[in-house]
Amino acid sequence: MPFRALGLHANILKAIHESGYTEPTPIQAAAIPEILAGHDLIGIAQTGTGKTAAFTLPLLNRLATSANPSQRPAIRALILAPTRELVVQIEENVKAYAKHISIGIATVFGGVGERPQMQALRAGTELIIATPGRLLDLMGQRCGDFSRLEYLILDEADRMLDMGFLPAIKRVVAALPKKRQTLLFSATLSREIETLTHDFQYKPKTVQIGRRSNPAETVTQFVYEVPRHLKPNLLSHLLKDPKMDTVLVFTRTKHGADRVARRLEASGIKCATLHANRSQNQRLRALADFRSGAVRVLVATDIAARGIDVDGISHVVNLDFPMHAEDYVHRIGRTGRAQAIGDAISFVSEDDHAALRSLERFIGRGIIRKRADGFDYNAPAPLNAPGEERQRTFRGGGRSEGSRGGGQRSASGRGGAGPGGSGGNRGSRGGSGRRDDQRRGPSGGDRAR
Ligand code: AMP
Q1: Homologous superfamily of 219-395 in CATH?
Q2: pLDDT of 150-180, one tens digit each?
Q3: Which CATH code fits 3-209?
């Protein structure tokens, strides 16, 4: 089916064409007509399926073709997303698709100065893309009149709930007009999500692409069983293969990410890091360098696991095996995006076996085991290792990073949810972008609520 069969405006079709898209992805083909017809919509789809365009294209179409009833500047649409990275990425998409129409767009998220964001809200910018924490903060300071809002989109709703944003979302939504079109996108459909749709939506249509929790079908998955202390060596060994040209490596903690990056740099492999200790500018630079190919490897914590859109990631490497199956699905969804193919490689040591088994149950199939040719699996743990290496090898059976970081999770469960979830870890514990977003003060982002 061609895009033009969907009933989109000619100027939007032109931008789609310039983005290089030839035909709608399944989620786009299913969702766009429903949204254009004015229905509330629940979209169940993982990242990588083209879901951002599935909601932004018809949204832009509606904004462009229906006049602002008041003629005065007004905030007409709000997109809420869990992390600042995702907000920036949605903005990039929207700007590309809105190239030939005239729509005011502004972003609101923590970690950067509030003033321009306040100005954009006060000016009545038509489309606001925001993280819930900072937006609520600014709304609390009476910035922005939302009384003429017509469209609300919750992107990665499951992740926002995981990250403890439910109270903030509820307060934001309570300040919006009841009569509006509400779209909710989520990778999974849980009872909590169903409650959210019941509370926020009116007779929503549901569009579901792919089986729930099924890793992107285009991704080939492998496991390398390897002693924990040899994981970095194995990574360097595999990176000798030039086919691994755009590689996203996941570690459990930000310190782990820095360590791995240092080792790779020392062996001449250009890499960047992405985690919660990095400033907003550093993160954007890391992503830009990775996107442009200036660096071959991006080492990240789970902060990058959701939503980050880098075309052509050839390999995702789980250097630290994810603690939760859902995280695995999101991590490997970074490769094999849209119609591309990619490989997901997981390093599994003794203490990861239980997590691997539960992952295989979760995805309903076994993952192929591989062994690297020419790699010395019997190399001993370094006796005179630097302090950090010693710690990793001898503390608590290798769970040291995980337990120090809580992964990126709270003791209380999924997602390190809720302001209590940092377990006293200063709110920047590697994981999700949430804590930066929720906790920093006015100069550094949102406060916890
Ligand atoms: P998303 O699932 O929204 O994160 O999108 C994943 C990737 O697919 C992004 O790089 C989009 O630019 C790309 N994409 C979205 N729609 C299409 C399409 N119809 N054809 C080809 N690529 C697309």
Answers
A1: P-loop containing nucleotide triphosphate hydrolases (3.40.50.300)
A2: 999 999 998 898 788 999 999 999 999 999 9
A3: 3.40.50.300
CA 197/CA 307 separation, integer angstroms = 21
Report how far ligand 1's centroid is from the alpha carbon of 82 (Å): 19
Q: How many residues does the chain have?
A: 449
- Looking at ligand 1, which atom is closest to the CA of residue 22? 20
Confidence of residue 302 (pLDDT cuts 50, 70, 90): confident
Distance 338 CA to ligand 1 centre (A): 5
Looking from the CA of residue 46, the nearest atom of ligand 1 is: 2
Task: Name residues contacting ligand 1 (CB within 6 A).
Answer: 21, 24-25, 28, 47-53, 309, 311, 337-338
Instruction: Give the predicted TM-score (pTM) of the model.
Output: 0.59
**Apex CA 327: angle with CA 324 and CA 332, to 5°?**
130
* Type and span of the H or E element at 181: strand 181-186
What spacing in Å lies between the alpha carbon of 437 and ligand 1's midpoint? 26
Question: What does the alpha-carbon distance between residue 28 and residue 52 come to, in Å, rounded to a whole number?
Answer: 9
Q: Can you give the residue ranges of every domain in the chain? A: 3-209, 219-395
pLDDT tens digits, 180-221 = 999 999 987 778 888 999 999 999 999 987 544 345 456 788
